[in-house]
Amino acid sequence: MTTRTRVTEVVMPGLIEPDGLLIQDRDLPAPATGQVLVRVEATGVSFAEQQMRRGKYYDQPPFPFVPGYDFVGTVEATGEGVDPAMVGARVAAVVKIGAWATHVLTDATHLVPVPGGIDPADAETLIVNGITAWQMLHTIAKVQCGQRIVVLGANGGVGSTLVQLAADAGITVIGTAATRHHDHVRSLGATPVDYRAPDLPARLRSLAPDGVDAVFDHVGGPGIQDSWRLLRRGGTLVSYGSAATKDDLGKSQLPVLVLVGRLLVWNLLPNGRRAHFYNLWAGHRRPTRFYRRLRDDLTQVLERLAAGTLAPQVAARLPLVEAGRALELAESHTVAGKVVLVP
């Protein structure tokens, strides 16, 4: 009989600065029917948590809550209806909130096996980032070998994964980043361009005079117009965030709704170009199909990690109880890759 488990977790109590996070201990009940108890070995800081602390995440959870978008860990106990043989298996999952903890209760059907021999922190960098990059590149934009793309923020968690997946598929990549990250971006397989350059659109256009087949833009704001203009006929703009408006006052949904509205209008233009707003949770109201697709796509990414064709981008590893420092570091824009919390 499984007993209660003592868990240490990070709590986001309200609108705070990174040092305002709280640490608490409490008891978790035994797994319910269909659930498993997972001992978390690695979780991480995503852009979502950076927005949540400001109350600016599109699907903002009510305060207080435990942040943590995804995790890698080992199954310690199973509930009724779950194969007990899962105990001891290393798994990954996307949960949106709740992963900044030493233990997590989650639905067994949401888990994805992690290949043996992979470091948990390495795998952690490629859960949300890997799924996002894979689906945008291969499902939405459908970029093919020999084509050319632009990745904004090529040194970031999603951006660095996008660059590597594209390069592995024989796609030419132009990536924007601060100049201090250019060597790193070049090592991933992209041609780097300074994102602070005052003539950035012109510089990007000079590298692709006939336009590019896809642009992946997490910045949003007024600059989304420049991303659209970079496309050749038949090209695809994939917008997956609005970092430019992260500090804007007002409702968190408004900048995203304005952005999506603009993309919808562009899709009506008779120029053969397409614009999409990527949302990882699109289709989650049909959970069976949604989690099957998520498992399939994450498996593709983890197989490439295991094979060595996709390198994890761990910016830093910090203890769970230093989540505030980890959040501050992730927001500093001084690191490349993902900041990982290790319980």
Order of helices and strands: EEEHEEEEHHEHEHEHEHEHEHEHE
Number of helices: 10
Q: What is the approximate shape?
A: globular
Radius of gyration: 20 Å
Report the span from N to C terminus: 25 Å
Average pLDDT figure: 95
- In terms of per-residue confidence, which ranges show pLDDT below 50 for 5 or more consecutive residues? none
User: What percentage of residues falls in helices of 4 or more residues?
Assistant: 25-40%
The SS-based structural class is alpha/beta
Strand content: 25-35%
Query: How many strand elements?
Result: 15
Sheet with most strands? 7 strands, mixed
Throw out a few tags for this protein.
single chain, 343 residues, 6-stranded parallel sheet, 30% helix
Secondary structure topology:
Layout: E1 5-11, E2 22-28, E3 35-44, H1 47-52, E4 70-78, E5 90-94, E6 103-107, E7 112-113, H2 120-124, H3 128-140, E8 148-151, H4 157-168, E9 172-177, H5 182-188, E10 190-194, H6 200-207, E11 212-217, H7 224-229, E12 231-239, H8 253-267, E13 274-277, H9 287-307, E14 314-319, H10 323-331, E15 338-342
